[in-house]
Each structure stands twice: as structure tokens, then as C-alpha cells.
Amino acid sequence: MNEIRHTDYEIRDTKYESRTLCIRDCGLADYREVLELQLDLWEKRRQGAITDTVLIVEHHPVITLGARQSANKLLVNPEELVKKGIDVVEVRRGGGTTAHNPGQLVFYPILNLQKLGLGVSEYIRELEGIGMELLLQLGVHSTRRRGFPGLWVENNRQSSIVNRQSRKIASIGVRVSKSVTYHGMAINIHNDLGIFDFLVPCGLDGVEMTSILKETGKKHSMNEVKKILAILLRDWLSCEMQIG
């Protein structure tokens, strides 16, 4: 695996000196390389060799197929996607087909849920909560849907789109093994949504994807968005942030 250049931020809980969260900003990186990095970090976290870690990244265009085969629905042959410069990768996370490309914020927490006192369902709700706060700070009100992990945008006065059905703005697909998480959450900031025309998002027919740019007309810098995310991770984990 090629070394992924990254910037580390260290978040330390001031109440519990041993509890530290490391955030790695991996910039724009290949999906397969980041997946390999996740697996390496998962093993180290399982062994207790590293602290809880979150990878933040944008990906080159890629479509991933989840563990739930019935939810993997491509509308174009994989060979055609490769010709268009879109990689196709089968992974062992929950959920079905989804897509990543530049302008989409993706974060992969490598956390020991047992030590955090969280079950899988609670963990997913935590991810949704972080995403909802992030979106709200950037001008978009989002909601949960029972039984469908991720975030949705309904018609509301904050949205520039009216008289439309609810739209999906964030997707979650996680895997938990031996109490340690990997994979994570993707939030559409200002990415090209055309990539979703090649698949049925999460296997849900009729779903329309959206982004902050589409909802508000505003294009935020990814550095700005990443800083907000780092602060939210601090808040949700009751930590004081330090740059390492």
C-alpha cells in the first residue's frame, strides 16, 4: 500500500487522561488504499496498540457494494464504470450500493465500542447526530428515518428546493468486529451527484440524492467542513481538542 499523506489532530478527554481520539485528515485518497489502512488500524485498535482513531477523507470516484447483496443495485455494468474512471469495490460493511467522489466528506471511525459503552444501534445514532449537527451549521436541516441509517432532507424553509420528496444527503455503512468499528459515514457537501445515476443508492428504489450545495446554493471549503467535524467529534465525545 502506498503511504497516505495525512494530518493528525489529537483530541484528549480532560476528565480521563487515558482517553484520546486521534483524527487523521487523509486529504483526497484512493478508496482501496484507505480501506487497507482501516483494516490495519482496526487490528491495532483491537490489540490496544493505538487509541480510538477517525480517518477523514475525500475519495476519487468509486462505487462500493455492501454486504447486503439484495441492496447492491448497479444500473451500469462494472466494466463501463471502469471505462468512465469509476472504481467498483466489494466491501464487508452494512448496507448496499453507494458512491464516493471529491466534494463528499467521508469519515471512518476506528473505535472500541465496548470501552465507549455503546451498542451498534447507539453508535449509528451517534454518527447520525454528528452529521445532523454538521449539516445544520452549514445551513441544512436533516432528519433520521427509522430503519434506514443515514440522513434525509425534507422540504423546509432552509432548503432552496420546494415541493419535492425527501432527499438523502448522507449515508452510513459500518462494520463492527470484536467490538471495534470500521467503515463509517459519507456526507454530500459539493460533490458531483451524477455518479449516483449509475446505481440505486443503498438499494432503495426512487431515492433522490442531494448535497449541501444543491440545497443551499453555497459551496463550502472542505477544510472549513473538516474543522467543524473535528469540533463535533470533540463535543460528542466530551473531549478537549489538541492539535498533535
Tags for this entry?
244 residues, alpha+beta, BirA Bifunctional Protein, domain 2, nine-stranded mixed β-sheet, three-stranded mixed β-sheet, globular, disordered C terminus
How is this structure best described in words?
- This protein is of the alpha+beta class.
- The protein has one domain: Bira Bifunctional Protein, Domain 2 (BirA Bifunctional Protein, domain 2, 2-Layer Sandwich).
- The chain contains six helices and twelve strands.
- It has helices at residues 31-47, 78-83, 113-116, 120-137, 212-216, 222-236; strands spanning 7-12, 20-29, 52-59, 62-65, 87-90, 98-100, 104-110, 143-145, 148-153, 167-177, 180-188, 240-242.
- It has a nine-stranded mixed sheet with strand order 8-9-10-11-7-3-2-1-12. The chain has a three-stranded mixed sheet with strand order 5-4-6.
- A hairpin with a 7-residue loop joins strand 1 (7-12) and strand 2.
- The longest helix is centred in the middle third of the chain and has 18 residues, at 120-137.
- The two termini are 25 Å apart.
- Mean pLDDT is 86; it is low at 11-18, 157-163 and 240-244.
